[in-house]
Amino acid sequence: MVKICCIGAGYxxxxxxxVIALKCPNIQVAVVDISTARINAWNSDTLPIYExxxxxxxxxxxxxxxxxxxxxxxxVAESDIVFVSVxxxxxxxGLGAGKAADLTYWESAARxxxxxxxSNKIVVEKSTVPVKxxxxxxxxxxxxxxxxxxxxxxNPEFLAEGTAISDLLNPDxxxxxxxxxxxxxxxIEALRDVYAHWVPVDRILCTNLWSAELSxxxxxxxxxxxxxxxxxxxxxxxxxxxxxSQVAHAxxxxxxxxxxxxxxxxxxxxxxxxxxxxxxxxxCECNGLPEVATYWKQVIKVNDYQKxxxxxxxxxxxxxxxxxxxxxxxGFAFKKDTGDTRETPAIxxxxxxxxxxAFVFDGRNVVDAEKLRKIGFIVYSIGKPxxxxxxxxxxxx
Length: 397
Ligand SMILES: NC(=O)c1ccc[n+]([C@@H]2O[C@H](COP(=O)([O-])OP(=O)(O)OC[C@H]3O[C@@H](n4cnc5c(N)ncnc54)[C@H](O)[C@@H]3O)[C@@H](O)[C@H]2O)c1
Ligand SMILES: O=c1ccn([C@@H]2O[C@H](COP(=O)(O)OP(=O)(O)O[C@H]3O[C@H](CO)[C@@H](O)[C@H](O)[C@H]3O)[C@@H](O)[C@H]2O)c(=O)[nH]1
Known about the structure:
This protein is α/β, with parallel strands linked by helices. Helix content is about 45%, strand content about 10%. The chain contains 15 helices and ten strands. A six-stranded parallel β-sheet has the order 3-2-1-4-5-6, with helices on both faces. It has a two-stranded parallel sheet with strand order 7-8. A two-stranded parallel sheet has the order 9-10. The radius of gyration is 24 Å and the shape is elongated. It holds the Pfam family UDPG_MGDP_dh. Keywords: NAD, Oxidoreductase.
């Protein structure tokens, strides 16, 4: 029986391994983590993360071919395939601080694998990492290998939070990068066999290592760029009386552009887009490509601009100061299905209790602005024609 171990029981490691266990009953899957609290939660009735559909998958497989453990070394030693899905945040100090990916957790995982391995292993990069990380990992593993063979694969994850289970069950593609050597090709085949249990083979793309590593950063950069593009348009819509939803709809009808990821917002959030674009910018700079770095950096700059613009609208509409005023934030999560409070029927109550004039600032275009205006609110919807009140106020506080 093939044994898989995943180091890192987070937003990626947990759901990904649960789906592998569900679809591959003949494979034993162990998810390990240094955090006892996280592992205890994975073994309890209250999982450490909320994802629609996750509970059912975990409950079906846990105790059969899916386990969660803090005994990292034991499970790594026993596995044929080791996924590494540890966090790779932006560095906060040292070389590349504020941009480069911090690979401390990755490096310590790689050193531990080299230490405890007693048989040949396929080591899979699941975390999002800079291009050429596989080379560094390979060096760590082979220089400490005691004659054991390690094959490194890059298998970046494209799931989005909130839709992780459906993304994993029905992925647009699975990407596997490996060395173009006989051993590398054999390792790619072994991982392809795992996914082929449920993913159509034409959706399993096999590339060289560097293409797979870079494709992940590129995909996130392209997605974030679309959001910054529509958000940039939202500012122009407000200045001209155009409606950003209508513009996005018309633009997205072009089949070359497509309708997805064109929702104007207060800017993108989440743990990935900013971190991965900063990482991309850093890699471009390190490779002597300042123009390319500047191009992608602009995506973050527009995102920052959009956040500031939204706050400025709030402050300027409320007579240039919010000090002493109470502001309620409805929907604090970075996106839906992670804690959503839209269309709460409590809004009319809220209006009666509020000081007048009462405002709603909608950074996601999710509220029914006309309904709220009828109740008496002054409504600002991002990228939409402005209320008279807002027209009279400067856009910048
Ligand atoms: N969150 C997402 O939606 C998403 C999607 C695709 C890719 N990614 C990428 O996947 C990676 C993991 O992201 P995440 O959101 O799952 O992170 P996370 O912080 O939720 O989980 C990482 C886990 O790794 C554990 N860990 C760290 N070092 C360890 C070690 N040496 N041994 C054992 N466990 C260790 C941590 O305790 C933590 O529980 C990142 O590189 C991220 O960029 C994330
Ligand atoms: O049209 C849109 C779409 C999204 N967003 C915002 O963008 C952010 C990110 O959303 P989303 O991409 O859906 O969630 P993530 O979980 O951050 O997933 C992204 O980051 C992951 C980590 O790398 C990748 O695996 C996914 O493919 C990629 O979509 C959120 O704040 C959204 O509200 C918008 O403002 N407008």
